[in-house]
Model the fold of this input.
Amino acid sequence: MPKQSCPIKKRKKAIFFILFLVILIVGGYAYYSRPKASPYEYEIAKRTDIKQIVSVTGKVKAAKSVDLAFETGGKIEKIYVDVGDKVNAGDKIMTLNSDDLKAQLRQAQASVSSAQATLKQLEASVRSQQARLDELKAGIRPEEIQVAQTIVNNANNALRDAKATLEDTKARAESDLNQVYNDTINSLQKAVSTAKSALLTMTDIQYNHYNGADTDSISLLNAKANAIYALFDVQQGGRYTTQYVSSLNSGLFNTIQQMVISPDYTKTEELLIKTSLALSTVNQALWAVPIKSDLTATEKTDLDTQKSNVDSEIRTLSSKQQSISAQKVINNNNISSAEIAVNTAKNTLDSANSDLKLKKAGYSSDQIKAQQAQVEQAKANLSSQKALIGQAYANAQYYVTQIEKTVLKAPIPGVITEMKSKVGEIVFSSSLSLEVQKPLVTIMSEGNFEIETNIAEVDIAKVKINDPATVTLDAYGNSIEFKVNVIEVDPAETLIEGVPTYKTKLAFSEQSEKIKSGMTANIDILTAESKGAIAIPQRAVISSDGNKTVRILIETPDPKDPKKIIQTLKEVSVKTGIIGYDGWVEILEGVKEGDKIVVRIIEQK
Done:
């Protein structure tokens, strides 16, 4: 038996040796044939909500009242509250009439639709140019030359018509604007004549009742002197008689009379501003007339009539200011559309001529390259039109913003303590004069505290009145949050250690016993938000010479080995929106959901 064990041991050793070799071979193959790690680090473009946040620190201070006024001018249409009423943040206080702005918004929206229609034409042009390129590569048919000649003739006619339309549009725009200016000049003449008539009526009452040295007489004298100076550029006119006032024809009054005879449209808007201020001064003088029992019924009626007439002229001048602005916008949009039509016609003609030339001469590699350039040009026109659509959208959004400015809302919860306006009153915009602006409503916070902070100039442009914010106080850590709203941004900078900052105040939406004066506040202001946006990491965006691009990772199966994946990079231009607090940026154009966006290329060792 011992002699038989040797062969068995030898067979076992051989088997073990063979198994070892198999394991070694399989392991080596697995090691050397394993897929190489990708050299690209990427993130998936996703659809998400992006919030733009400005983070600052500030101090809790005792709250103050807030004075509110409109940013724009117009006629007060409705008032929703009264003195003593409680309001919440965001509640409507009053609104201005916005009919003209709504009409301008509809015009801007029509421009958007027109731009979108042009975009479709340019998209068709790209397809047409691409089709022509394909035809060049495929070769020429004899009958195509005649078709190409017809296309050139039609394109010439279209360009001639487009140029004629552009000239007609420019002439009509100038004529329409001049008509608005003429109407404005006539309104200015009527306004100063109405103001002069009001001064005559006031002078009659002055000399009948208030021509002494008492307080009422002196007050009326001073108000009348201011009105005469504003209208006629004549000083010390407080005691001018009716006959002398009637003979005055100097200053602003004379300038406008001369404008009627010899219009100078370059000065129309300047005179509109000056006349509005002058009428405001005359209006103040009318209201300075004391209403006492010794005035006759006729005098009271005449005085009320003149007040109404001057108020009416003030409203008319405000309307003329809006009409001029609206006409300029309409003219710019119409001329821009006509210029685009000419450019499109030129490009079409150039393309048609090139196509005819190619067909007559026969196609070569250089001509195919030239047609390729036409394709690229058509694509460039398409990109340019997309930019114009963005401008048209921005124009429409401007009017949306202007309409929003006709609604005065409470920035904080509180109580209405003062109301300095009434329905029908004319509110002047800052474009006319800061002097005629005044606070319309005062709100006193129901609580006792607000937050004061300084925001750096790099962030202040993002912050707006009524922006919501979340606050934590160092005293309580991050576990307790308070809601606040931006209620005031100082227009002048404050230098802190040589750095320009802007003092900003925020009001608590709800008061709490936990809030104490002097506490340090950590503030996150929500300045913008985009819901359901396509977003990628900001660090993936490459900026160069004003252009922004990203690299998209393209993965395709290897035609030689379907189990392997070939990775290539495609660089595309993008249009970005807001940047979120988490480092992700909104993508408006260039990237779609699910794209693999390269954020870093890893060096291979």
About this structure: The longest strand covers residues 520-537. Confidence is low (pLDDT under 50) at residues 30-34, 430-436.
